[in-house]
């Protein structure tokens, strides 16, 4: 049985074919001349491979939505700054592809995309520009997709300021020292100094956040997005190598962190990606090579 649709060259052709698993909806795009199927019984959906357009099957409404590929986010799964951007992309279901940098961060190919040679970087398809720095990227995504929930914007000016404060405190007083947890440093004194500076920053955050249940109250914000993947590094590394248990010493951050782990599918996905990255580093001997085999006392 075929459904009659307007003869618009860009309009997908929709029909139903019987298979052993039941009726599967078939889509053919006259514009691109390719077939894609979506089976209602199993909830699977298949997207086109056209470089800029993808067709998604809406099982509950029996309609098809054409989504533009908005761009590419260059990211590493273990990167806490990249994870901030992935969190927003996952939560809003933005049609942005996520790739690792081609060849490597300092490769000639990637430096043409991001001259800083860092992640994250967001290439935008419509105007061929690249945004860098996680905070800039997330502000763009929130502005561009303001109509898509969640907004990541608290209701009041005070709570919006508190969310920005939490993110800024991390970026100024914790993030600059986090490298000392797991990278090569010149001396053990440098590592100890980084650890103590980062711990003091977390103790300040403990006093600032509301954790009711989010950083700035009842609505998720970029403060939560900034802190969650970064705190994973401290939760994973501090007990193993620094004889410090942040989730025992910082009760508000602990309650907030445990809530965030299962707050949404986006949070669960980010948690899994970063934790698997840290576990892979440990399995491959990265921390041992960096001199973290023995705990600091």
Automatic annotation (TrEMBL):
<feature type="domain" description="GST N-terminal">
    <location>
        <begin position="69"/>
        <end position="149"/>
    </location>
</feature>
<dbReference type="InterPro" id="IPR004045">
    <property type="entry name" value="Glutathione_S-Trfase_N"/>
</dbReference>
<protein>
    <submittedName>
        <fullName>Glutathione S-transferase</fullName>
        <ecNumber>2.5.1.18</ecNumber>
    </submittedName>
</protein>
<keyword id="KW-0808">Transferase</keyword>
<dbReference type="InterPro" id="IPR036282">
    <property type="entry name" value="Glutathione-S-Trfase_C_sf"/>
</dbReference>
<dbReference type="InterPro" id="IPR010987">
    <property type="entry name" value="Glutathione-S-Trfase_C-like"/>
</dbReference>
<dbReference type="InterPro" id="IPR040079">
    <property type="entry name" value="Glutathione_S-Trfase"/>
</dbReference>
<dbReference type="GO" id="GO:0005737">
    <property type="term" value="C:cytoplasm"/>
</dbReference>
<dbReference type="GO" id="GO:0004364">
    <property type="term" value="F:glutathione transferase activity"/>
</dbReference>
<dbReference type="Pfam" id="PF13417">
    <property type="entry name" value="GST_N_3"/>
</dbReference>
<feature type="domain" description="GST C-terminal">
    <location>
        <begin position="156"/>
        <end position="287"/>
    </location>
</feature>
<dbReference type="InterPro" id="IPR036249">
    <property type="entry name" value="Thioredoxin-like_sf"/>
</dbReference>
<dbReference type="InterPro" id="IPR050983">
    <property type="entry name" value="GST_Omega/HSP26"/>
</dbReference>
<dbReference type="Pfam" id="PF13410">
    <property type="entry name" value="GST_C_2"/>
</dbReference>
């Amino acid at each position: 049985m075929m459904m009659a649709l307007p003869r618009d060259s860009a309009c997908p052709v929709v029909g139903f074919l019987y298979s052993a698993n039941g009726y599967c909806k078939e889509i053919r795009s006259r514009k691109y001349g390719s077939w894609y199927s979506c089976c209602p019984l199993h909830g699977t959906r298949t997207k086109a491979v056209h470089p800029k357009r993808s067709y998604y099957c809406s099982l509950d409404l029996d309609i098809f939505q054409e989504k533009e590929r908005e761009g590419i986010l260059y990211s590493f799964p273990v990167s806490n700054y990249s994870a901030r951007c992935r969190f927003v992309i996952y939560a809003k279901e933005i049609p942005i592809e996520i790739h690792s940098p081609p060849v490597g961060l300092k490769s000639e190919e990637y430096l043409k995309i991001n001259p800083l040679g860092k992640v994250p970087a967001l290439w935008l398809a419509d105007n061929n520009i690249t945004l860098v720095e996680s905070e800039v990227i997330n502000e763009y995504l929130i502005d561009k997709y303001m109509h898509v929930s969640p907004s990541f914007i608290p209701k009041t000016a005070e709570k919006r300021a508190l969310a920005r404060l939490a993110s800024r405190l991390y970026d100024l007083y914790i993030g600059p020292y986090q490298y000392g947890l797991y990278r090569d440093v010149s001396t053990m004194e440098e590592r100890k100094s980084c650890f103590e500076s980062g711990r003091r920053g977390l103790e300040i955050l403990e006093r600032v956040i509301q954790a009711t249940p989010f950083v700035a109250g009842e609505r998720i914000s970029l403060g939560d997005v900034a802190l969650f993947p970064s705190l994973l590094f401290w939760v994973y590394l501090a007990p193993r190598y620094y004889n410090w248990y942040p989730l025992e010493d910082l009760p508000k951050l602990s309650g907030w962190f445990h809530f965030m782990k299962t707050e949404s599918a986006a949070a669960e996905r980010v948690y899994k990606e970063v934790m698997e990255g840290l576990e892979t580093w440990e399995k491959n001997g990265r921390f041992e090579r960096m001199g973290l085999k023995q705990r600091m006392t």
